[in-house]
């Protein structure tokens, strides 16, 4: 199977008509595409293949050797979902005892702490800032195990850090993603001497570098790497660092690492299968979410962070997963920031246990504790809203009577034998606690359910055409190129026509000036942030049937993007 386009940016053949499916049909399709995480894709090596198992064993040895040094650190880094998961994993493993030095895990997220909550324009496109961030967080350590996460092998933020890490004699540099090397991005990086592929090739060839890139197939919504790629990122890093910890504790001989990794993947695969045993309840949750967004309501996640609890048996960090899921909706679907919000017990103190960061005073967007929800959102709830309680969190559960009193829809995602609030839709994830991975496999189930809810809800609200995001916000280089691919594929035009239509939509004109035609991608991104519905307008313009003003009028008459696009794209295809 030959591909000319990044696999993470390729439409998944299973979900071509997901926008026409019922809520139950949507979840069934997500179940099928999630299966590819474990089954593999085409002729490429997947999770269970020897390429991956051998590489995981090699990385286990590298990391254990580095952490056994007095100043050894692990630095996980990414942009968007990848960076948020870096935070999640670093926090998870710092919580565990048994490391040679306390809390050896660090994380970096392009755009810094604000990007945990809200995407920061262009943050992943600055490799020089990335290098400064990495140098600062390494704190002069001579021994660092660095993992740069970029699912499509494309983020300049990661390219810059990989170049820096490879130059450090006692560091190890790992590039984690889900594309084959030959499909890494080759387009120039603005202000940087090399395309991403050149850096990836350096990593693959270096004695202190390695690629970890099993191929898990295209995303159910094209390019939405928060879904399968995010899930696989969580699995790979948790299995890797569990193996490292056991090896450091003398409980896992080197010759047994590959078998441990294989067995661990099977545990996560069981969690995936167990999650979809609740497909009926998950589809009901998706239906509630779709109705909420169609009526201009809001979805609110209310959850806890078990690893903050002073308990010998921590519960899942479900509230943080809700926060992550909510933060992904605006860039993915062009959703308003308030459409999906996450609130977690403890707020910023939960995200940064050392108290080093608290942005709650910066703007209302950054008020993310359950107490903030009680004060800011509870008085404003309407019958169009949906509140989703994540787990057994007393501070959230205690709000259910007040939520019901206001006529608001309520659901709960729970696990084990924990009590759930009455008179709500309940989705149970049944994995419980694992003797090796604790609650990590249960957290996998939570992630799958939450991704299904917000993806399905936005599909039902008309934010997806076929399996393409047609109302995404262009906030970085990757999304600019993704948008061009969407226009080319849906309208059937060449690159030049797609670029012309996109520029007209961004600059709100039919007569582009020379400076507008020659604008850099970063300049286009900056302008696009002030323009509504850039991608839908560009799609309509690319049909050749509309000028800029007419495209605006079509979308004003029919703001449900999927319906507006469908009507006119279908007519254009019929004419051809």
Automatic annotation (TrEMBL):
List where this protein forms a coiled coil: none
What GO MF terms are annotated?
Answer: carbohydrate binding; enzyme binding; enzyme inhibitor activity; fructose-6-phosphate binding
Q: Print the keywords alphabetically.
A: Carbohydrate metabolism
Q: Which organism is it from?
A: Sumerlaea chitinivorans
Listed PROSITE patterns: GCKR, SIS
An individual GO BP term: carbohydrate derivative metabolic process
Record SUPFAM superfamilies: SIS domain (SSF53697)
Residues covered by the SIS domain: 63-251
- Superkingdom field: Bacteria
Q: Name one GO cellular component term.
A: cytosol
The protein's name: N-acetylmuramic acid 6-phosphate etherase
Give the InterPro entries listed for this entry.
GKRP_SIS_2, Glucokinase_regulatory_CS, MURQ/GCKR, SIS_dom, SIS_dom_sf
The record ties this protein, via PANTHER family, to: GLUCOKINASE REGULATORY PROTEIN
Signal peptide bounds: none
Pfam families per UniProt: GKRP-like_C (PF20741), GKRP_SIS_2 (PF22198), GKRP_SIS_N (PF22645)
